[in-house]
From TrEMBL:
Official protein name in the record: Major facilitator superfamily (MFS) profile domain-containing protein
UniProt-listed CDD domains: MFS_NPF5
Ranges annotated as spanning the membrane: 81-102, 109-129, 149-169, 219-239, 313-332, 352-374, 395-415, 478-499, 523-543
Domain of life: Eukaryota
Pfam families xrefs: PTR2 (PF00854)
Coiled-coil blocks: none
Similarity comment: Belongs to the major facilitator superfamily. Proton-dependent oligopeptide transporter (POT/PTR) (TC 2.A.17) family.
Length: 552
């Protein structure tokens, strides 16, 4: 095709409003005026809000269910919550690969939604199974094996469904904006902010409603409401089908598994390690990245595009590793922050207590308040200084969030030290069930700072990992972002198990003793603050040398 013919074709495409690289639900080229953009993302954001209502309706108060109806110890309950949350956040790596290679994002969303709803239904049923002991006191656990079996089966079925749903629907939502169009490209960055805002609104609502219902009315009803919410999520998603754009770059296209493709490059580079750069120079495109040149040797037996994919993913590894400590910090809100609050004065009136898990609402409130400030005020101010469309780079945004997590942990440690002192002053050290006469409002600052940190880090990670991988690997890119939380939860569970074993030997009181008035959560928070400081310095060092890539 000649240059003039190509120009004519581009002009015709622009005139007709056809979006390059995407089709509609009939398989025809997408028309800009009738598909994608905010028109489609409205349905997707609605589905995400309903799904987050369902997921956090279970996750935010799970430790209370473990230590209450399932009669687990504090350390065991925290480890189980971390393992489940970690699994749910790690599975996107697998589902992202399946979506990019076989099913496509749309079909993966439908499949995982069905598994999700089935898991929530089984979880609701498990909560209706009665105790074995009735009202009798006994030293033996009153929880039946059937109840535990169905409960954990349902819980991990939810993790399987949630892991696939969230990674695909976020990538699918971003797919609705055309990066080649300046207006839509700018809207995509705004989309990441406001989708996170909307999800936070859903989470805030469920923490106010589900947590209260679970602790004051019925656990079965408290699990049933999230099940209905997930059904609503699937309905909203299907409602927008006729407006969606389906990317032809990765949506449903059959190709090698991303892990296989990337693995082939490393194997080929190792096999061809004897080749000199001059022998492979003519095989590598002139626009090839200049980093990780040892992978260029793989061009002898692999496609040059696969080599670039491997380089793109490899360049993300140092950034990903530095963020894992933030993943550990992220795991504390639904576990030890919640248990910390359960021992304090939570009275609203003489007869009414609000659930400790409801304190997590302050995370979402701070997100809801700060995202508009960030989007309308902070970005404008930063843009006038840096002259960047987004104000600051995504890596600068992430590093700011990691830094803010440090004072959040310091405040948590100081408040816990004050709580322990108050318990000692009032002779409550040996009274684990007694309420420490210290207002739970002391915990609000750590939750608020935690939420502001989220706005910077989590939204930044989502945008960074989505934008810095090739188009065909975008589900995998978002999987890497979500796996930060997943691996962080696994590491948190591992740390709790190791510290529990180390500090409970030789007659010592464990940092995570069931009696929190004798435990030392403050030591754990100080340890995490130190680790976060090291992670922040490491992140800044790697971020300075990172070269941004054009995923196209």
């Amino acid at each position: 095709m000649s240059i003039s013919e190509a120009a004519d074709e581009a002009g015709t495409t622009l005139l007709n409003g056809i979006v390059d690289g995407s089709v509609d639900f009939r398989g025809k080229p997408s028309v800009r005026s009738t598909s994608g953009g905010w028109r489609s993302s409205g349905f997707i954001i609605g589905a995400e809000v309903a799904e987050k209502f369902a997921y956090l309706g279970i996750a935010s108060n799970l430790i209370t269910y473990f230590t209450g109806p399932l009669e687990m110890s504090t350390a065991s309950a925290a480890s189980n919550v971390n393992l489940w949350l970690g699994t749910a956040a790690f599975l996107p790596l697998i589902w992202g690969s399946i979506a990019d290679s076989f099913l496509g994002r749309y079909r993966t969303i439908l499949l995982t939604s069905s598994l999700y709803i089935l898991g929530l239904g089984l979880l609701t049923f498990s909560a209706t199974i009665p105790s074995l002991c009735k009202d009798q006191e006994t030293l033996v656990s009153c929880v039946s094996k059937l109840k535990i079996t169905i409960f954990f089966s349902a819980l991990y079925l939810i993790a399987i469904g949630e892991g696939g749903f969230k990674v695909c629907i976020r990538a699918f939502g971003a797919d609705q904006f055309d990066e080649q169009d300046p207006k839509e490209s700018k809207a995509k960055s705004v989309y990441f902010n406001w989708s996170y805002f909307a999800r936070s609104a859903g989470i805030l609502t469920t923490r106010l409603i589900s947590n209260y219902v679970q602790e004051n009315l019925s656990w079965a009803l408290g699990f049933g409401i999230p099940c209905l919410s997930m059904m609503l999520s699937l309905f909203l998603f299907l409602l927008g089908t006729h407006t969606y754009r389906f990317s032809t770059g990765g949506e449903g296209r059959k190709q090698f598994n991303p892990f296989v493709r990337i693995g082939r490059v490393f194997v080929a580079a190792a096999k061809n390690r004897q080749q000199t750069s001059s022998e492979t120079y003519h095989l590598v495109p002139t626009e090839s990245s200049k980093t990780f040149r040892f992978l260029d040797r793989a061009a002898i037996s692999c496609d040059s595009r696969e080599v670039e994919e491997a380089k793109a993913v490899l360049s993300l590894v140092p950034i990903w590793m530095c963020c894992l400590v933030f993943g550990i910090v992220y795991a504390q809100s639904p576990t030890f922050f919640t248990k910390q609050g359960s021992t304090m004065d939570r009275s609203i009136s003489s007869t009414l207590l609000f659930p400790a898990a409801t304190l997590q609402c302050f995370i979402n409130l701070s997100i809801l308040v700060f995202i508009p400030i960030y989007d309308r005020l902070f970005v404008s101010m930063a843009r006038s200084i840096t002259h960047r469309p987004a104000g600051i780079t995504t890596l600068q945004r992430i590093s700011t969030g990691i830094f803010l997590s440090i004072p959040s942990l310091v405040i948590a440690a100081l408040v816990e030290m004050k709580r322990l002192k108050t318990a000692r002053d009032h002779g409550l050290v040996d009274s684990p069930e007694a309420t420490v006469p210290m207002s739970v409002c002391w915990l609000i600052p750590q939750y608020v700072l935690y939420g502001v940190s989220d706005v910077f880090t989590m939204v930044g990670l989502q945008e960074f990992f989505y934008g810095q991988v090739p188009v065909e690997l975008r589900s995998l890119g978002l999987s890497l972002y979500l796996s930060v939380v997943g691996i962080g939860n696994f590491l948190s569970s591992f740390m709790v198990a190791v510290i529990e074993k180390a500090t409970s030997q030789s007659g010592q009181v464990s940092w995570f003793a069931n009696n929190l008035n004798q435990a030392h959560l403050d030591y754990f928070y100080w340890l995490l603050a130190c680790l976060s400081s090291v992670a922040f310095v490491s992140f800044v060092c790697f971020a300075k040398s990172y070269v941004y890539r054009n995923p196209k």
